[in-house]
Each structure stands twice: as structure tokens, then as C-alpha cells.
Design goal:
Blueprint (H helix, E strand, L loop, with lengths): L1 E10 L2 E11 L4 E5 L6 H8 L7 E6 L2 E2 L5 H6 L1 E5 L10 H5 L1 H5 L4 H14 L16 H13 L5 E5 L7 H13 L7 E6 L2 H7 L2 E6 L2 E6 L1 H7 L3 H7 L3 H8 L2 H4 L13 E5 L6 H5 L7 E6 L2 E7 H17 L1
Parallel strand pairs: 3-8, 3-9, 6-7, 7-8, 11-12
Antiparallel strand pairs: 1-2, 1-4, 4-5, 9-10, 12-13
Helix pairs in contact: 9-11
The chain binds adenosine-5'-triphosphate.
């Protein structure tokens, strides 16, 4: 776990990070979201002491990081940046092995860790002997992540990690990041200015503005129940699609009048279906009615108009709690 307590950083006597306190439980992902210049990178770099704060303290697993030798601290923190920063004259294997080599792992242990990470990242084992320029941008970024994870750090810091990738590869890597077991145990702090990426990756999202934390909450609470106008304006036009992707049909059912089957056009929807977007897109189609099923069979039928109305009821209910 990571804890920042009243962290302030001044440049030219002005705070660029201003009295920030944050807590990230072990294995969770906190996303720092904010526009350019809001202080996200400065905040991130204070956690691995690339920048030293002027006030406050940072604890990792309960220990103040200033009590640890800086090189030792950094070896235990994976760091991934947008520019990737692979060493061009080193092979993929040598790149991944950077920290394990520094801390004197045996050749066998390093080689099996390299193979294991390539496999985890969905890359063929023969990539080990390739050089970075022989890989695509997405493959290079996967190697960058593998390198950051090589020595089993308890913390992974990522600064706009997927920002340079084209949208399809970016989605693929974001999805891996969400689902690959290798990320589960690691505490992750991710910087981005991309609202959708923040809500997709974060267990919690902290909106940073002018060096301060405006609000930190789960994506669901920020979307449906934010206390801040700034959060709402930052989410802006993405709010609707993000809300739809947070909700499962099973949650809407409480507000949904079920009917007998009456229409020809029936589409089957499962109650676990999430995001709700596919169901909701029906409101713009020729479908009049959906057939709703769960794991034990038929739940009932509902009109598409009622589906829309019940989603809106759920939305207003979530907003008041
Ligand atoms: N070494 C420095 N000296 C003076 N000012 C700095 C220094 N580093 C950063 N700043 C200023 O601190 C503020 C925060 O910068 P920071 O890089 O943390 O923002 P950011 O939110 O990560 O932005 P971006 O998304 O563009 O990377 C900016 O106004 C920047 O100009």
C-alpha cells in the first residue's frame, strides 16, 4: 500500500503539488487524472524520489520512503513512461532483465523470468533476442511493462503509459492491464489525462487540478454522485457512455416493468450484461421489446422504452445516495 500525507512541492515558491494526501490499498489501481500541467507527473515522481517534496511524507507498506536508500527504493518500484525508454542496443531479454541483473539474480532465474514475462505479455519467446527497433510500438510498450515488473515490485508507477499507442493497440493493452493475473498483486498508480482510460483502469480515480486533489472516488461514485462541479465538467460529454458502461442490466431490473411477450422483434439480454450500452443502443433501433434471461432461464420481457426509463430512474437514485 502507498500513503501520501500532506505532500507539497514548490517551484519558484509556488506550489505545483499542494497539500496532497492519498491512500492506495495493496493491489489496487489509483488513477491520477487531470489536464496538462496540473501536477500529476510531479506527484508520481515524488513516490520514487525522482523529485523530493518540500513538505509531507510518503509511506510504502508503512515505511517512510526517505528512510530507504534511493537506489534500493527504485528497484522495488516499477516505472513505465509513455516514451518507453527501452535501451536500443540491448536485446529484449537484456532490457527485461535490467533490474534482476542489478540485484544479481542467477542467469537461470533471469532467463526463466524473461520467458515467463514474455508469455504473460502475449509475446512469442523468440522475441527475447530481438532489439527494440524490431518491434512495433505496442510490443515495445509491453516490453516496457515487462521490464518494470521483472523483479516483482510491489508498486508500479505508470505515466501516460499507453498515450503514444494507436487506439486499437491501446485498448488491447488496457484490457490486458485490467485482466492479466500478473498485475493483480501489484499496487498501481497511473497518470493520464484521458477520462475514458481513467475510468476503465482505476479502482479509484483522483481528479487533480492546480496541484490539488479535487475529488478521489470509485469511477461509479464520480460518475453518478460527484460532489464537485469540476469533476462533472472534466468528465463532460463522456459522462453518458461512461455511465452506461458502469451499469449492468440486473441493476436496472428493479425499476423495470416486466411484460408478456408481444413483439416479433425480440433480442435476448442477459442480466449480467455489462456494459449496459448494447441494451441501451436498442432504444435507437427497430426493436420494441427484449427478452431478459439470467443463468436459470427466462426472467421476462420488457419494452425498450421501459428499459430507457428505468435506466434514468436508476441514475437518479444513484445520484442521491
Ligand atoms: N523542474 C521544474 N521547474 C519548474 N516548474 C516545473 C518543473 N517541473 C514541472 N514544473 C511545473 O509544474 C507544473 C506541474 O507539472 P507536471 O509535469 O507535474 O504536470 P502534469 O499534470 O504531469 O502535466 P502533463 O500531463 O503535461 O505531463 C507545471 O506547471 C510545470 O510547468
Amino acid at each position: 500500500m502507498v500513503e501520501l500525507v500532506n505532500i507539497t512541492k514548490l517551484y519558484h515558491k509556488k506550489p505545483v503539488v499542494n497539500d496532497v494526501s492519498l491512500f492506495v490499498p495493496r493491489g489496487q489501481t489509483l488513477v491520477l487524472l487531470g489536464k496538462s500541467g496540473s501536477g500529476k507527473t510531479t506527484l508520481l515522481k515524488m513516490i520514487n524520489r525522482l523529485i523530493e517534496p518540500d513538505k509531507g511524507s510518503i509511506l510504502i507498506d508503512g515505511e517512510n520512503i526517505t528512510n530507504r536508500p534511493v537506489e534500493e527504493l527504485r528497484r522495488n518500484i516499477g516505472f513505465v513512461i509513455q516514451a518507453i525508454g527501452l535501451f536500443p542496443h540491448w536485446t529484449v531479454a537484456q532490457n527485461i532483465a535490467t533490474v534482476p541483473t542489478l540485484i544479481d539474480w542467477s542467469k537461470d532465474k533471469i532467463s526463466s523470468r524473461v520467458s515467463e514475462l514474455l508469455e504473460h505479455m502475449g509475446l512469442p519467446l523468440h522475441f527475447a533476442s530481438r532489439y527494440p527497433h524490431e518491434l512495433s510500438g505496442g510490443q515495445q510498450q509491453r516490453i516496457g511493462v515487462a521490464r518494470a515488473l521483472a523483479a516483482n515490485p510491489s508498486l508500479l508507477l505508470m505515466d501516460e503509459p499507453f498515450g503514444a499507442l494507436d487506439p486499437i493497440i491501446r485498448k488491447e493493452i488496457q484490457s490486458d492491464f485490467q485482466h492479466l493475473g500478473i498485475f493483480k498483486e501489484v499496487t498501481k498508480i497511473v497518470v493520464t489525462h484521458d477520462v475514458k482510460e481513467a475510468f476503465y483502469l482505476g479502482d479509484e480515480v483522483a481528479l487533480i487540478d492546480e496541484g490539488r486533489v479535487i475529488e478521489k472516488a470509485t469511477p461509479r461514485n464520480l460518475l453518478f454522485n460527484s460532489i464537485s462541479d469540476l469533476v462533472r465538467s472534466f468528465i463532460g460529454e463522456d459522462a453518458w457512455s461512461l455511465k452506461l458502461s458502469e451499469i449492468a442490466l440486473s441493476e436496472v431490473i428493479a425499476f423495470l416493468p416486466l411484460t408478456e411477450s408481444y413483439a416479433d422483434e425480440v433480442l435476448i439480454c442477459h442480466t449480467d450484461e455489462k456494459p449496459f450500452s448494447r441494451v441501451f443502443s436498442l432504444t435507437n433501433s427497430d426493436h420494441q421489446q427484449v427478452k431478459i434471461v439470467d443463468n436459470s432461464g427466462l426472467v421476462g420481457h420488457a419494452s425498450v422504452a421501459d428499459l430507457k426509463a428505468s435506466f434514468l430512474k436508476l441514475e437518479s437514485q444513484l445520484a442521491v445516495h
